[in-house]
Design brief:
Helices cover about 40% and strands about 5% of the residues. It contains 6 helices and 2 strands; from the N terminus they run ββαααααα. Helix 5 crosses helix 6.
């Protein structure tokens, strides 16, 4: 679903809370799998629920790689040297606290700090700048508002 913001006048895609970008499963299933893996359970046993949902044998490893990418991006964006040694869900919890849905909360945290969703987002990281109502900007190429922020070229 897409909506237009009344403040910045840009359109934004809405993702339901039970889902995360780039996943073929719900956020709860992904979080359960990653938590079980963090507890030391082998990939084969931990993946039983994912495989029962119809995911391929390679999907659990892919999910773990996506979490590693998320943590790497998050560390680069959010800094916090005291968290640099943490990995996986431990790092996510160090940022958002001990919440029921840490991956969803990490995306909310990013949005609250002017960055698009960090967790499992396939798109490049976008920094949101503050704008006045009269300044319009679009991330869509070819949009009539794209030229509103373009730098003039030539004399």
């Amino acid at each position: 679903m897409r909506v237009r913001c009344g403040d910045c006048r840009c359109t934004h895609a809405l993702i339901p809370s039970f889902s995360l970008p780039g996943l073929s499963i719900g956020s709860a299933e992904a979080e359960r799998y990653l938590a079980v893996r963090e507890a030391g359970v082998g990939r084969g046993c931990a993946a039983a629920e994912l495989l029962a949902c119809g995911m391929s044998q390679s999907y659990p490893k892919r999910l773990e790689r996506m979490l590693t990418t998320t943590v790497t991006r998050g560390k680069a964006l959010l800094g916090a040297p005291h968290r640099q040694r943490l990995m996986g869900l431990a790092w996510v919890r160090s940022v958002v606290g001990d919440v029921q849905h840490p991956l969803e909360e990490l995306n909310r945290f990013g949005l609250a700090h002017g960055v698009n969703g960090i967790c499992f987002c396939r798109a490049s990281i976008l920094f949101f700048c503050s704008q006045t109502r009269s300044t319009r900007r679009s991330h869509k190429k070819g949009s009539p508002w794209e030229s509103a922020t373009a730098v003039p070229s030539g004399p």
